[in-house]
Amino acid sequence: MSIPQTLGELRNSPFNEQRMLRRGVKDELRENLLERLKSPGPVFAGIVGYDDTVIPQLVNAVLSRHNFILLGLRGQAKSRILRALAGLLDEQAPYIAGCEIRDNPYAPLCRRCKELLANEGEQTPIAWMHRDERYVEKLATPDVTIADLIGDIDPIKAARGGHELANELVIHYGLLPRANRGIFAVNELPDLAGKIQVGLFNIMQEGDVQIKGFPVRLPLDVALVFSANPEDYTARGKIVTPLKDRIGSEIRTHYPSTVEEAMAITAQEAWCERDGPELIVPAYIRETAEQIAFIAREDKRVDRRSGVSQRLPISVLENVISNAERRAVLEGSSLAVPRISDIYAAMPSITGKLELEYEGEMKGADVVAREVILASVAKTFDRYFGASDLKQVVQWFELGGQVTLTDNTRTHEGLKSLEKIQGLLEKTEKVGVGEGEAPESIVSAAEFILEGLHAHKRIGRTEDRVFTSGERPKRSERDETRETFEADWEQRKKNRRPFN
Length: 500
What we know:
By secondary structure, this protein is α/β, with parallel strands linked by helices. It has two domains: about 250 residues, Rossmann fold (3-Layer(aba) Sandwich), CATH 3.40.50.300; about 210 residues. It has 23 helices and 14 strands. Helix 14 runs antiparallel to helix 15 and helix 19 packs across helix 22. The chain starts with 6 loop residues before the first helix and ends in a 5-residue tail after the last helix.
């Protein structure tokens, strides 16, 4: 069937007058969601870890035809969820050609379209918009004005058209009217000034907007959705109470509850498919990178109110892979296998994502990041080697053995050093690396074992990544000064008197 190009042709299509007048955008979302629920597969593709928590609440909000808000910390897929809503709209929708606010052909709102319909009748030209064009998003900032969202008088339109400023044709429509018959999303709602939030009241409750001082009402057909950090988590602003009262559903998002869910998200989002050397990323590397976020979220030196974004392990894994690629290219290898030392080399992707408390600031972001990585290695190591007997490896170091493994150590040099450690290479089978594996994989697995032993303080390691016995290295004068200061600070906190 040919696509209707005029109003007369549209009347004889599935988009007839009866259907389009009774079916607003929220009804459209609801009907298409009900159809999707009947079919197998995820309701929203690419959203991981929310199947039993956020998704059911989101489905209920859409089925209830609610305007809703997603509340959650950074990196919890709020924007991704909002953008996924566009997939519930019809693939194509008709509107009066040339209309700024994409008027319904059977019930136009703007003066221009009303006059066009009166003059052209059944020959009124029809245009079509794809579902992606019906999603409009605005990042809230303190400088957003009513004119940006709702609209204003355009003197240029008045001058060019010879209209008086009191004429409705001189209106320049803002983002909200331009989202008519679609979804309008506002990210970080608390950053919107209070008086601008008040400007959203009418469209949410009465279903219309008023532009400037014009006695014109536009009963827009739009679904309003928002995202924000919880009110008590932001110092920049808040959601005014009357606006909160008009939001139908408040849905709380969260970080992944299990490492497996988090790894699935990172595998989906991280850039791992690259040109260059063949890439093998061991499971223990992926898990260690993921544990960094879990450990940091529980660390008292990290600000829990700010949260630790799920973008952290994604960035870490990308940096880890890049460091392994760099090493492979420098040594002329066709295979890149990341090591634990590559995770330490990826610290720039960690330190900038951690908001530290006072205690963390005192130690420094680098120190906190190194300790978090070490704790992550320990937790991952326990899953693979918790019941393994590694005494023979520990004894080799206690007898004076040393081995240096940095992220720049060439594979053949590292393997040659590791072969001297009695009982080490045979343990790599625990992580799926047998004798016939590539040298790059063997070195990576062996280093993981050594780093895990160091994390449990069974062997030592210097800052230069020289693995030694578990004897505590001599403290420098700087270390002693720092420990004295920290002890004095802890004592001061204990002796601090509360304010009356």
